[in-house]
Amino acid sequence: MELTVCPECGRPAEILWRAVMPSTDGLVEHAKILCIDRHWFLLPTATLGLDPGGREIGSWW
After folding, report:
1. What's the mean pLDDT in 36-52?
2. Number of domains in the chain
3. Which of 3, 26, 34, 39 is the most exposed place for a label (fewest CB within 10 A)?
4. Residue 37: inside a domain
5. Which pLDDT score is estimated for 27?
6. How far lies 15's CA from each of 26, 30, 33, 35, 43, in Å?
7. How many CA atoms lie within 13 A of 57 on its CB side?
8. In whole angstroms, what is the distance from residue 56 CA to residue 48 CA?
């Protein structure tokens, strides 16, 4: 199990899967995440580990 932070509420979220998808800037790795409050997102992996304000966080769980 791989964990990160929910970009909406800042609570722990599980990374369900990762995939590389094309973009206008080339290939970008994305991840689908699901938080413990049932929020889910498909977002670039470069944004994982950021709190809702966009700041990098440490591992706290």
Report:
1. 85
2. 1
3. 26
4. yes
5. 96
6. 23, 10, 4, 9, 11
7. 19
8. 9
pLDDT of residue 50: 60
Q: Report if residue 31 sits inside a domain.
A: yes
CB atoms within 10 A of CB 23: 10
Based on C-alpha coordinates, what's the Rg of the chain?
12
User: How does residue 58 score in pLDDT terms, banded at 50, 70 and 90?
Assistant: low
Whether 59 maps to a domain, the answer reads no
Domain that holds residue 39: 3-47
Q: Are 27 and 51 in contact (CB under 8 A)?
A: no
| 42 found inside a domain | yes
